[in-house]
Amino acid sequence: MQRAARIVSHLTELKETSAGVAAGTCPVRVAKKPVKVLITGAAGQLAYSAIFMTAAGQMLGPDQPVDLRLLDIPPMAKQLEGVAMELQDGCYPLLSSITATTDYKVAFEGVEVALLIGARPRGPGMQRKDLLQANAQIFAGQGKALNDYANRNVKVLVVGNPANTNALITIHNAPNIPKQNITAMTRLDQNRAQAMIAKRANVGNSQVKNVIIWGNHSKTQYPDVNHAVIVDHPASNSVVPVRSAVNDNEWLNGKFIEDVQDRGAVIIKAREKSSAASAAQAAVDHIRDWVLGTKEGEWVSMGVYSDGQYGAPTGVVYSFPCVCKNGQWKIVEGLKLDAFSVKKMKETGEELVDERSQALSK
Known about the structure:
The chain is an alpha/beta fold.
């Protein structure tokens, strides 16, 4: 009897101290206010992975409740309902509430973190300009929704491709949101590059630090290892430059760069679908480091609004190495660039200028 009484007492305490728990989700004792997180294209396969990572606390931390908003287009409403059902069935302790909707106002109202994943894929016979202009309409609409309904301090990550220019379009249509709060994802390229280096050097993925992705998330991107290091190699507490550890400049300046640039296409050829789980992981990594901060001495690649740093064109969303602290990002300063890097960075910048003119043309 005493044991039963203790169980009832404990359950009663849980019920009384649980905050904002939606019907169909499991109760959890929480001290923090839930963060409103929006994921667009939520019925798609990339979002499918990101949604459950977010609910599990991988993005905002193991003690941060989330209020999930899931948005997709009306033809995907039934699939969206199924995703919401699975979230309920997952019984995630941090999941405060679930809102699955096709209505922009309902989705964007008060959001504090937004992953803009939904975008039109490139179809047969479509030119890049056609894709840019088709997605311009989508991200113009989402930018306006952010401007009209979102929290003024919302943190936005554009994942849908072409991500850099879609982020720029979003910025143009959300004048009330600070430019620095709208970013594009190049973390997937960084993760790919670091994994390739780790495999080549026969070390763990987490031992490779500070590979930089400069420029556009496209075939012109420049994966730069000149400032990258491998830690705890060849012995504990040692740090060696990637170039010294790999000891193959021909590969690093050639096939390595090409392999990172082509990785998405190679995956599509292999699985007949775009990257999904790895892209979702990169999106989670991007937001986590932005919100919770980067580790001391480490930086991450983020597509951010350019003011011309390192010779990049102004007024485009360009990927730079960044450090994050207190929810703010800052471009790493003072890195020395060789002639090879300057050339590569200029090429990707020129592509972004060209994309801007195509996407924003009437």
